[in-house]
Amino acid sequence: MGLTVTTLWWLGHNAVASLERHGLSLGFGFLKQPANFAIGDTAWLSFSPENTVGRAILVGFLNTALISALGCVLAIALGFFVGVLRLSPNPAVGGLARAGVEVMRNTPLLLLLLLLAASLHGLPPAERALHPAPGVFLSDRGLILPEIRVSGLTVWLGAATLATVLLRRALGRLGWRVAAMAAVASVASLVVRPPVVGVARLDGFNFAGGTTLSPEFAALLAALVLHQSAHISEVVRGAIVAVPRGQRDAARALGLSRFQVLRLVTVPLALRAMVPLLATNCVSLIKNSSLAVAVGFPDVVSVLNTVGNQTGHNLETMLMMMVLYLSLSFAVAGALNRYNTALLARGAPAR
Amino acid sequence: MARVAAPLAACVTAVVLGAVGACRGDAAAKAAPGAGVGSTLRAVRARGAVKCGITQGSGFATPDDAGRWRGFDVDFCRALAVALFNDADKVQFIPYTQQQRFSGLESGEVDLLVNGTSLTSSRALHQPLHFGPVYFYDGQGFLVPRSSRATRASMLDGATICVQQGTTTELNLTDFARRNRITLKPVVMEDLRAVVSALAGGRCDAISQDGAGLATTRTMLRDPEAFRILPDRISKEPIVPVVRAGDDQWLEVVNWVFRAPVQAEEYGIDQHNVAQFLESADPSIRRFLGVEPGATDGLGLDPKWVYDVIAKCGNYRDIFERNLGAATPLRIDRGLNKLWTDGGLLYSPPFR
């Protein structure tokens, strides 16, 4: 431990000394400067070039967080499904699932990503967009949906509802009542300040109004989910196989159907074996999301690269990249580890 | 988890603590440059080759069938190798993306960059770099499909513009949009090939790059004739060689080697007739070619280095026409890159 600290101190000191030699100084003052560049895809926060560099990085980080959160949930869901399919007694289903998993697992993620991005470019141009429902357009500009703008009041009340539900233990007996009140208030706010629906229409080069799911976002999400779910399906399959045969036989002997055995006996037992590995897979999905720059999705790495190049603060942006990814990975790993602890406690024999 | 966390936290702390140290040492650090004068030239001589950072792009730097680097930027690197070693092959080419280039130079991996870097005040002031003379005048423009509704850059309102990351392109594009009160949606990609395929696939309405870059990019498309470069230039891009700050001698070597082909063109000296000029009676030409000593004595180069450079690499016109001119697929017009005597901007300070 001491050795590690010393080594890292030496490395840090070395970096600083060489920066001094080149007449460079470290500092985070550049975060307050105007960004002067635009970001194409913004998830929650609006962004314009007059905003600060700090806000640009935040927008990039939210993009990374969004794609990671969606990616993790979808990859686990798909991985679970495919993992169970692989154990199907039907050889065609099992074989097909296996073939799919092997192809996904043994293809470089970048290749898959570029392939998906290129195939999304094959969608019709904006003027000839597919138009399956009012306000819905599918073209090479992405999937455009009607936009529902909820008032700020509703957002705050909704957040309050969520917070009280999460803190209900701390609030004691009052907990549920406060939560219910907050929920009623947020529904009421929808009536007082009704949400506005914006429908997109083609205006010159692009669609105006509405909300856009960009092809870059879709390609990145699909690639991450397909790739990671292949890994997860192996985890799921392994965990299920690891459940002692006797447990399943006993459940069958009780007259449970095949699906009931899976739902009531095999999966709950297998969960204990797979949760830590699911956490690992989620963390690796988060890290893989940094491939975004290859297809042009403005994730935190892409934005920080631009910032580093515009301002010359490369070491600081690198440091921020490390800290942001670390915190995101720790948050996910921590949450799933807590879930795992709770899961193990549930199954522990009563003392 | 905790076991992983501790050293990583320590690392972060180390860097942060180090940062505090750097702030304190700031004033002293500013006085330090100058210590490295002569070090680059010594290192290059000891190594026996120049290390030149380039960025791949047809016409500027591409390997040919035999794996030999060719192009406009490459020829200037070779001119430097000739000036130092009288051998156009004593140069190692290290290809960078636009995004890695400055780190590569700052870390000492290369001796200079000849890769289409444009000189701006913030680059000159905020990064520990020095810039040589402008060897190519360029400006940012747009490449659009011929079928596009936009015939001028200002008609691109609402358009999606694909750009390559790590250049001033993003900044110029944003400034242009704000100046003209139009919205442009940037899609920023790391690899130029991804940008090209996005334009070909219709994902972008236009791509934006320096003019020379657009000419190069156009040849990468399957049907170059289906695309056109809009006439507007939305920025000034003076392309310069880049060296590390703090080694003035090396900067001077780069300065004068880059100026020699321009001065040669002005004198009418080219690759084929340079030998005849050795007998010239004009004293300024005799000094220029090193027949009479004195013009570039302090550089630490062979007195005949200019002669060698012109004989092996040619003058500016030779280099331009060989790589970018009408006989090449790029067909770039000399434009601003004509001599000042022909209405362009190229002007070499006198060799005397």
How would you describe the overall organization of this protein?
The complex is a heterodimer of chains A (351) and B (352). Chain A has helices at 2-21, 53-86, 91-105, 109-120, 152-166, 168-171, 174-192, 215-242, 245-253, 258-288, 292-295, 300-311, 314-347, and strands spanning 130-133, 136-139, 142-145, 147-149, 196-198, 201-203, 206-208, 211-213. Chain A has 351 residues and is an alpha+beta fold. Chain A has a domain at 32-110 and 225-346: Orthogonal Bundle (MetI-like fold). Chain A has a four-stranded antiparallel β-sheet. In chain A, strands 4-5 form a two-stranded antiparallel sheet. The longest helix of chain A is centred in the first third of the chain and has 34 residues, at 53-86. Chain A is globular, with a radius of gyration of 25 Å. Chain B is built from 14 helices and 14 strands. In chain B, the strands form five sheets. Chain B has a five-stranded mixed β-sheet, sandwiched between helices. Chains A and B meet through helix 1, helix 4, helix 11, helix 12 and helix 13 of A and helix 1, helix 2, helix 5, helix 6 and helix 7 of B.
